[in-house]
Amino acid sequence: MEQWAFLSQIFQIFIAFCLFTTLYGKGNPLRSWAEYSYLAAGTAMSVMWAWTYIRNHAVIGLQAGELIWIPAIILGLMMWFRIYPKYSYISRIPIAFTIGIGMAWTIRTQIFTQFISQISATIVPLFDQGPMWLFERTVIAVGIITMMSFFLYTMEIKGPHLWSATFGEYFMYLAFGAVFAGTFMGRLGLFVGHMQSYMFPVWKQPYTIGIALLVFVVMLALERTGWGAKLSA
Amino acid sequence: MIGFVPYFIKVPQVNEFANTLTNISSVVGQFTIVIAIYSQYRRSLRFIRERRKGWVYNIYLLTFMSLMILIGFTWGEHNATYMWLVNSIVAPCSSVVYGILAFYMFSAGARAFRARSLKASLLIVAGVIVLLYQAPLTGSYIPGLSPYATFLTETVGMSLNRMFAIAIITGAIMLNVRMLTGRELAFLGFAREEES
Amino acid sequence: MGKEGVNLLKLMATYDKRWGYLLLFILVLLPMIKPIGMPISVSELTKEYYEQLQTLEEGDIVLDSWSTEYSGYMELKPGMIATHKYFIKNGIKIFICLGHPEGLALVGALLEDELKGYMEAYDYTYGEDYIILGFALPNQAATLAMATDFQGSVKVDWKGDSIKGTFLDRVETGADIDMIADFTTAAGNPGLINHIVLTFGTPMIQNQIGVSLPGSYMNLDAGLITGLLASTRGGSELELLIKEPGPGLIAMDAFTLGHYLLIILIVIGNIGFFGWTKKVSEEMESTTIR
Hints:
By secondary structure, chain A is mainly alpha-helical. Helix content of chain A is 79%, strand content 0%.
């Protein structure tokens, strides 16, 4: 079994670097193989998830005598009529049912967490906790209102609305800069964490570097000889 | 309505029924995977038939996918071979797909951040301040940077997100109301919307 | 300056981005081979998160929600390891609920690969100190059912064994949960927030990826979550606070160098833009007018 675990580690490093060759910008067979492998395995895994979910809820529920799962299975099977254009209208019923339930939960939960809580957190007493609090809260309130005014497209923007929209636009650019930096930090953290899993424990390091160099050299060789484009998808 | 009303009017039986309907809708949603698989097979078989570029990879795709589904169904999803394939292919590839975004963001920032105007300059200044603070070395040697970077992320950046959250949920509620009143039928495949 | 100076500016404006990719790769891998050991500071955000952890007492029950797929785990790993080490060290009972099917792979990755030795050292055993409920939070209905009638909705663990006779016998509703620890890639977990936090006032701490941080900041500001750990950086700061160095601190050298490289290239790009690109386009415009 240890042999399989070792092989798994090496294979993971190899397929990861094959996929990293995407950054080179030109097609090559290593990248195409990695992409199609991921697509195949990912799709197969999605099928198994779906089946496991249906089995754990509907099938086991039916076996336990919960007849409510019969309409669930019927509705699910009706969804498959989407494939046949002549009978695709049958699939509208399960679609409408699913969207209706989704709508109910959106209104039921998001309206409190994303709407009411956020508005009540914006409109707070300004003079409670000192000058810094006053400044921050004012910036938040003014920022949100002016940014929203920038997105009002159904009326002519002039006068005080123009000032508000202009301020909101500049505020947004400031915010986008900060958000970009945060997003970059997140993605870099993900990449660094990923590379750490291939560099630690320390025994992995020569394999990782060796495989990276091998993939890079093979990719360059294929590109220079013209076979890279011919053999890629 | 059955899902929405029990939150406000406490009738345990209706609430329970609403929960059951939610579980049913989750199960119904899982059946759509078959449509995705059918589409994939159809597309790949067409590529193979027409001998389009990379048709060999489509043969590989269909074979490997079918094999893995067969292994999963025959021996279960906790089977060693199935788990080996998942851990060796899906796990690293999904990490790479998101990790590659770091490079794209990196090149986007390096190439697009040009101080062409006051707005662009504000973007760059805010970005650089936060980037400097986020680098742990600068954060520890220049502690004076912390209040400015924290202000930009936790006040200015947060305001932006809050504005988007309020605006998006308002739009979502409007769309839901239009769907409930029958004014929005595109999701059901009707080409023309009902005019208000 | 002449031709040489102009070429340098042209290079700054028009360099191939792939060299930037290669540089980033090298700057991330090099500190892992030869660690530099740069110092890091601890932010107020992480200190607040740690203070929230310190409100827990031995025997308290925490809902440990893993709503992340494998790629998100790469980013959240330092924070997850540090937080769970705190739970293990202080005898806090946790029940792990997965919000994403890929979470099943994380159980092995975190509990067996990273924390096994630590759990053995502190005699942290399955059934007595921690229970894995599996993919128990697939949707909001499941969260609501768990919050309102825990014993009725949760009967078995992820392998199908009964949870009767464990510490979970104490949990009847969401009010009996002392804290929620959410490790997520989504911008907030509306189910947990709405059905447990808002209904029962249960405090919730969150370890969030960088992309979704702005969304979590607004939840923190609104009081919906009481502690927030920001991505890999937050995880490394928590490792420093709990004095348990781990993958987060190792990653910080690469983190620093990656950030500096981006800043340097932004500066270089702007020098190239003002020194070359702008001049060229102005020259072309003036030629066209003539």
